TrEMBL record:
CDD domains: HTH_XRE. One of its GO terms (cellular component) is cytosol. It comes from Flavobacterium panici. This is HTH cro/C1-type domain-containing protein. Keywords: DNA-binding.
Length: 77
């Protein structure tokens, strides 16, 4: 899975003003475990990606295609 997916999860969470602690609790996992997902330190399963998309209230497709430059006029890397 591309690193951008992990980064997109973090950016979407931050734009929704959700804390890592909140998302981790909703996923019934530790904050440090969830942090590893956002950093791309662990492989993300399809089932976990589905759970994350539900907590963030976005589609999986949105996570894959998310582009922060839409909101902040940043150039993509």
């Amino acid at each position: 899975m591309k690193y951008s997916v992990y980064e997109n999860i973090r950016k979407i969470r931050e734009l929704k003003n959700l804390t890592r602690e909140y998302v981790a609790a909703e996923l019934k996992m530790s904050t440090s475990g969830y942090g590893k997902i956002e950093r791309g330190d662990v492989d993300l399963t399809v089932s976990k990606l589905i759970e994350i998309s539900k907590v963030l209230e976005v589609s999986i497709e949105f996570i894959f295609k998310f582009d922060v430059s839409i909101f902040f006029n940043e150039t993509t890397r």
